């Protein structure tokens, strides 16, 4: 049997040349578009400083999930923003028509108005999961659904995060603490969809 394998390998070795596989860069926070006062560490997974940053790719697939661990309290916001969302001003996410954000007061804002309120407060060490299906943004707290859907979100949006007053957020776009609900999966880049 071993001699057959060697013979086969000699006959066809040129047809099976080594071709390296190029992996797409991972989804992470985008240091090219972040606010000037933002500091990204841990390979683009931790945000601190003052301002906002967004993921390096928009939500392209039908049902996406990502998580954020609140490492240190302060002023923070997590959610979705368009490419026109202001990333310079702290506390700006959710204050205009370009973003939807869960803030540190446990309310979800859009147009500077609270559109939903979590039944439980978010505390240091908590993991916040978010799902988005191109219409509805849902929030999970430590794996438990909060039943506070925000609907009517349309267009190209990015997972977006802001910090101020000492807040530190760890963002997870894969290898989750609690994992996505049924039908949802990690955020993937558009080129990986093909």
Overview of this structure, please?
There is one protein chain. The chain has helices spanning 2-12, 190-193, and strands spanning 38-41, 46-49, 51-54, 64-72, 75-81, 99-103, 107-110, 113-117, 127-132, 137-141, 144-145, 158-164, 168-172, 185-186. It is mainly beta and 194 residues long. It has a single domain, classed as SPRY domain (Jelly Rolls, Sandwich). It is globular. The two termini are 39 Å apart. The relative contact order is 0.24. The model has no long low-confidence stretch (mean pLDDT 89).
Per the principal axes of the C-alpha atoms, what is the gross shape? globular
- The DSSP helix count reads 2
> Might you state the CATH topology name?
Jelly Rolls
Number of domains: 1
Characterize the largest beta sheet: strand count, sense, and whether it forms a barrel.
Answer: 8 strands, mixed
Task: Report the CATH superfamily.
Answer: SPRY domain
Q: Which secondary-structure class do the elements indicate?
A: mainly beta
The ordered H/E elements are HEEEEEEEEEEEEEEH
Work out the number of β strands.
Answer: 14
Write down the CATH class. Answer: Mainly Beta
C-alpha Rg (nearest Å): 20 Å
Approximately how much beta-strand content do the residues carry?
Answer: 35-45%
Average pLDDT figure? 89
Low-confidence stretches: none
Architecture in CATH? Answer: Sandwich
Binned, the helix content reads: under 10%
Alpha-carbon distance between the termini? 39 Å
């Amino acid at each position: 049997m071993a001699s057959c394998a060697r013979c086969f390998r000699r006959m066809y070795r040129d047809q099976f040349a080594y071709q390296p596989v190029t992996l797409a860069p991972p989804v992470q926070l985008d240091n090219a578009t972040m606010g000037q006062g933002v500091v990204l560490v841990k390979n683009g997974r931790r945000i601190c400083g003052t301002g906002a940053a967004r993921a390096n790719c928009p939500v392209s697939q039908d049902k996406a999930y990502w998580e954020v661990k609140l490492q240190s309290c302060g002023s923070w916001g997590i959610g979705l923003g368009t490419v026109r969302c202001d990333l310079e001003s702290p506390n700006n996410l959710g204050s205009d028509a370009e973003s939807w954000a869960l803030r540190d007061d446990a309310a979800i804002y859009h147009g500077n108005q609270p559109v939903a309120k979590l039944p439980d407060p978010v505390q240091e060490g908590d993991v916040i999961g978010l799902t988005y299906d191109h219409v509805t943004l849902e929030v999970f707290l430590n794996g438990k659904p909060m039943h506070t859907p925000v609907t009517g979100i349309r267009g190209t949006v990015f997972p977006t995060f802001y910090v101020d007053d000492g807040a530190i957020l760890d963002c997870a776009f894969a290898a989750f603490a609690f994992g996505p609900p049924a039908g949802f999966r990690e955020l993937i880049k558009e080129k990986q969809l093909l």
